[in-house]
Amino acid sequence: MGDLLPWRLAWQVALYGSDGFYRRASGPAGHFTTSTHGPHAAVLAEALGRLADREGARHVVDVGAGRGELLTALHAARPDLHLTGVDVVARPERLPGGVAWLVSPGGSDLPAELRDLTDVLVVANEWLDVVPCTVATVRGGRLVEVDVDVATGAEAPGGPLDPDDEAWAAAHWPADGLPDGARVEVGLTRDRAHADLLSRVRRGTVLVVDYAHDRVTRPLPGTLTAYRDGGIVDPVPDGSCDLTAHVALDTLDTDRVVTQREALRALGVTGTVPDHSLARTDPLGYLGALSRSSAEASLLAPRGLGGFGWALTRLPRSGATGAAD
């Protein structure tokens, strides 16, 4: 076995180091599809535009913006909104001229310029799942870190958790009663990243969208997964693949968590199939409507993108409820 590092450290370098996965020219869309890619982007952009109106936002910030796919769709749908993208790469060449761009260090770290935001809707779609976290395993009833060979992905038990990670696990994903070999993905780095994002907003709304689990549904084997070229591969922290783990959205300091399906339905996304009679009178219009309804249905699918969690927080705190209201 070669060089071993705790998973959290190896993960950070693999995604955000100088030769990291997210710095590659292909970008995330070259390897997997999210709600911000392809035909989904136009539907989501329109829904987020309605959410911005509902929240009184005139500025939308996309954290983890990839190559600006969602921002491009937002610019087309809502040219009246001020738009800003945040990601680890330089401004994409094809980004519309009116869209601002900030370069982020990557992972949980945000650019210093992102601060004092007002009248803003901040959207972080599939950002927290790629904020590296401590990966631990149960040995003899206690949690120890999992170390990984950075070249092969082979794993070995590491040292004990640091006190902060141990306290998070005890509160939210306790090892008591778990069998040896069960895994825990300690969400403290995600909680802190979310808190940092909230601290950048003086007045506005923060929306985090991600794969999620809660205390009742924490998975025994964990969720650490890798993607490359459109498929799932073994997680190896060598920079060749995406590395992601589901987010404990229930531990975030947020106002409300709903599913994407619930939230988008409340924002007018229905997935309704167009009347087939339109195919005779307006074939091109029918094909366009059918493509849109397919994208909407995909975003609403309860076992797919529709099952993602939407965690929404209004600032300053006022006890308000979430996006589905």
UniProtKB/TrEMBL annotation:
One of its GO terms (biological process) is methylation. It is an enzyme of class 2 (transferase). Coiled coil: none annotated. It comes from the Bacteria. One of its GO terms (molecular function) is methyltransferase activity. Its EC number is 2.1.1.-. Keywords: Methyltransferase, Transferase. InterPro entries: NDUFAF7 (IPR003788), NDUFAF7_sf (IPR038375), SAM-dependent_MTases_sf (IPR029063). This is SAM-dependent methyltransferase. It holds the Pfam family Methyltransf_28.
